[in-house]
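Hey L., structure's done. Input below.
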Amino acid sequence: MRSLSLLNEGDVRGACVQLAIRAAQAIGIRFGSIDVVRVGDAWQILEVNSGVKMEALGRMHPELVHAAYSAALDEVFG
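Output:
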């Protein structure tokens, strides 16, 4: 099993974010967990979950999990 790795800012990360946004829009969710993986030379959606489970990310980067939940709650509840 490969370990979790995060993309730094840049064109590749931006393209993956846009791919994830389009996937979320396609199924009509505003908040979820979208796994984007590299297959050969292309980035593809592995899965989309309406529930968010970030234990692995939380162990490595708890500040990112906190920021994600804070932003989501701010968006929903203002």
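The chain has a mean pLDDT of 84. The helical segments are 11-27, 55-60, 62-77.

-- N.
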